[in-house]
Amino acid sequence: MIDSYKRYTHKAQYYETDQMGIIHHSNYIRWFEESRIDLLEQIGFGYKKMEEVGISSPVLEVKCEFKSMVRFWDTVYIIPRIELFTGVKLTISYKVMDAVSGELRAVGETRHCFLDTRGVPVSLKKKNEEIYSIIQACIGVDL
To answer: Active site includes 18?
Structure first.
């Protein structure tokens, strides 16, 4: 499943732009989420499955550093990478790359934890060893 990962592509929309005609900074956080959901779905532990087994994964922290502008109708790849996974916490980095030129547009990171239905931190290693192993196998893999 890791070998067949399809990178996440996004075409910048007009409503995402600001008064200067560039993508508003808040949209990068949405793009990170879109690519994270896509990545987790592709490795077999999407948000729907997470919820079915009684797990949620709130965002603890978000970072984004802008390198160059994305404008309306540009197509970008958002490339997520699992950097750290303890079973309870997860860190994912992101690269936003222009699909035509390959130019780096932004880099970022999100940190998450896993909670049960009561909002108590949960270890995936104890709760679901299969999913733990899948995520563990993806740490540091360039997809």
So the answer is: yes
